[in-house]
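Write out this protein's structure.
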Amino acid sequence: MHIPIGKLALYVTGGGLNPRKTLPVVIDVGTDNAELRNNELYLGLPQPRLQGEEYWHLIEEWMSAIRLRWPNALVQFEDFSSDKALPMLHKYRHKHLCFNDDIQSTGCIALAAVLASLRTRGLHPSDLVHERIVCVGAGSAGLGVCATIVQAMVDEGLTAEQAHARFYIIDKDGLLASGRDIVAMPEAQRAFVRSDLPGGMPLEELIATAKPTVLFGLSGVGGLFTERAVREMSRHVERPVISRSQTPANCLSARQSRPSSGRKGVRFLRPVPLSTTSSSRTAALAPQISAIMSSRSLGLGSLLPCCVSRALQTR
């Protein structure tokens, strides 16, 4: 419950919503972790997770109830598994006022960061089509970021196939490529499966082979970006861009202050400082940066349907 409460707090502080008009919700569909189910301290439903039609019927019932009771409410989807997140978004995005934070908020902030990095590298926004992007993490956040940038590349003139070819996605088993069990993958992952490289390739080997310009960390595993990986990346690219986005702070194990193989330096995309104390000169970094940046616009935007409706009714 702390996650929806925390996100709603951002709507209140960043978007100015009345806290009494927000509702944190957790949909408990059970767990497949037998150890948790048998633990007397476990607060969730002690039953296996709902799957298939039963699962989707529950979601439909909940969405219908929200729509009936609060027709103008904005619904934020959060932390759904990658096989559920995108189908759920496609199903409801044109029927309900809703969005998926992992896919869309993270995606738009990541795209903005890459476009900003192009400017600092002296490039034009249209040069986005030339970026070679490695994404560590094939969950809803990683796929959402990649799908957003793919759409931006298509808007700049590439075909969808050409845009997908600019990406290399790694999950816990390595690179999504030939040799992997494609049938078992969620549909959103299949579009990024490569046929020109062997499946399962680890990160450092992939960096040496693909020579990426951008490296995203969207995995829950820490310590993935080793100094060797960063140095290997900077050997091939003048100013590589590295973002650890929503990953743990220890994802970036390489020391950022060290020079990278004589290059001009690595561009690390991190949460921007909110404030700096004059006594210690210590920057206070903003957690949940994508949520902070998007919640203000989404929070204010969610008020518009109500405001427009009321304005029309008073005429």
